[in-house]
Amino acid sequence: SSGINAEYGYFIQTNLSTSMSENNDSKVPSIDSGPSISTAVNYHKLDIQNRKCKVVKRQMFTKMKAEKNKAKKKRKKADEEMRKALGDAAPPKPVPHTTESLRPADETAVDPDDEEVLKDAEQDEFSKYFNRDVEPKILITTNKRSSLETRKLLDELVNVIPNSEYVKRGKVDMKDLVKQSVDHSYTDILVINEDMKKPNSIILCHLPEGPTATFRLTSVKLKKQLKRHGNATSHRPEVILNNFSTRLGHSVGRFLGSLFHYDPEFRGRNVVTFHNQRDFIFFRRHRYVFKNEKRVGLQELGPRLTLKLRRLQKGTFDTTGGEYEWYYNHKQMDVSRRSFFL
Amino acid sequence: KQWYQRRVRGVATELGSLRAVDFKTQKNTVVTYDELDKKNEIVSISRSTKGNELYCTLAMNLINVFDTAENIYVNQYEMEGPLVDGFDIDDAFISCSKNGQIYVWRDDEVCEKFKVGENTECCVKSLNKEIISGGRECELSVWDVENQKATFTSKNVPRDTLDIRMPVWIQSISTLKSDPNIFCVGTHYHQFRMYDKRVKRRPVVDIEWGELPIFSLTADDKHCYLSNGKGDVGRLDLRTGGSICKYRGAVGSVRGLALHSAEPYLASVGLDRYLRVHHTETRELVHKFYLKNRMNAVVFTEAVIKEEEEEDVWKNLEEVNVKRRKLEAMWELQND
Questions:
Q1: Using CB atoms within 10 A as the burial measure, which of A24, A212, A254, B59 is most buried?
Q2: Residues of B contacting chain A (CB within 8 angstroms)
Q3: B110-156 residue pLDDT tens
Q4: Which residues of chain B have pLDDT under 50?
Q5: Which residues have a Cβ under 8 Å from the Cβ of B47 and sit 6 or more positions away?
Q6: Could you tell me if A324 lies within 8 Å of chain B, comparing CB atoms?
Q7: Facing residues of B93 across strands?
């Protein structure tokens, strides 16, 4: 029987019908089974795939599709009638599985009331920003000899992050850059690295001793590539951090949030969202408008980015002598398709 | 004969709490000295030779003595400067700070002070009741406590092919279980070195291991266990100096390693907030505990089983599965 193999976490299909002529009506899944393949058809896909004549193949496929749809409608109708008949006593509707719903409960998931987590947050490198004792001041650069695309992204990022400055990289090494930034009292460095003349990764280094996060940067869409985009004002945005549920995610979320002033200008109605889903962090920027109590209008501004955490290092950038808090290791981490780290 | 030994691990954390994890019941107890604060960060733990005490070195300027039987802090030693380690040798208690200053305490009073070198990063007790220390630009040296002199100082390796002097930065030191003349050292430049006092001043074995500084080392008679800034925990053979295997699982930097004195278990603890126990021969991950803080050091201790608790012991025996019983029986036989 088909079902979810708990060990491997993916769906195993084991009830394949083997012959075309066999009547599979008896194998129609009952209404309270979970997501299932429609087995009430007389064609098996391999029989269709192995047919050489394209005309016949197409005909068989259309027939199969029609039968499948018919069976589905039948099931739905039966389901509706059952629910009507039973009313409240009907069994609950089966909820379809998604990658998120199949994610195993993480041990390190953060309980917002946890004393130790709160104490840690009170004393970590970002607490000063969330207490509004210090204002973030960010230095944005690129790798040495950056190309046009990276510089375009740069311009947009300088607009997104309040109190940020672009400085040409020149011939400065990363460690020297860190030193010089500390001297000029910057609080963070954002370095956009590129590969094949396209922006590829972001190194976020918190100063003076803070953590360094390296992200893989993909799906970069600049403002002009977005349809019906808006033009941002200089108001400081609000920040939304979604779904940073594990302990590691909590730290990364705080890190990303500390780049922005913890004092947004609500008048500007700007929002910056870091949405974490399956270890990918989606960066979006919107302007919102409350049309009435229930409806909100959103206009997208500024760039779209997708970030994926590669490494989180405890000190400032130091690949030879540093201590890593989290290091992406493909062999150890890509073991299961269902578990995620942020 | 103790059929059933409760193995407990004492773990030091960044926020100053000492956590004890019970191997069998999988319970987790937390003891804090003051409050959970970064200034109370415990840098290292060492077991005392006398009783059930643990010396917890705080980063600031205190060494707390913790009684594992009573579960309370008993005593305290105060010393200036960021501290490195504290342990006892015979009657004396020795505390070491990062400036290289060593205080010798007898009866809770400072008797002697001497300097071991600037920038001491680690300090360890040798089997001959001496102090071994090393640090950044600070060669490995063995100090006699009474005479306050170095009985052995290591020499730097020869210059490389470009005639450049090799920098010295010792991050971890370990002695062997029974041989008092051999010391293992892990450096910031991911080198593993073994020094033999009787043979020569330069290292007998000098290998590169991994790509990041070797933050923690612990050694057995035949093997030595290292850990990295990246989470690589590996095992080396001391005769050949060759790497044997790695214990997988750790994701962040592993700052503390501990070997069980009798049984083949290795505990590792680090920045990824997990305590892992591996079987040293089969490399199996036997236990994994999520302890919410970043951790600095581990130590194996044995819980004292009082008479009233014996009933609990017998109850728990039935939960143990057959495989584990067989393993334990095997080890029992081997140890006899």
A1: A212
A2: 15, 17, 35-38, 188, 211-213, 215, 229-231, 248-249, 251-253, 255, 271-273, 290, 292-294
A3: 888 888 878 888 888 888 888 899 989 888 999 888 888 888 999 99
A4: 1-6, 304-320
A5: B53, B54, B55, B299, B301
A6: yes
A7: B88, B105
